[in-house]
């Protein structure tokens, strides 16, 4: 049965390959998000140090 002939409410079974690809994509996205958070925190810290000057934090 293909996707168009499936009765309402019947969910599609995910294959192992599809699940692996989905999880891999989710891991990569989480890693990119983490790197973006770290980059933003580093930029904020650098700006804070620049504004406060030496010896202030």
Automatic annotation (TrEMBL):
Basic and acidic residues compositional bias, start-end: 9-21, 29-42
Highest taxon listed in the record's lineage: Bacteria
Region named Disordered: 1-57
Name the record gives this protein: Uncharacterized protein
Source organism (scientific name): Aureimonas endophytica
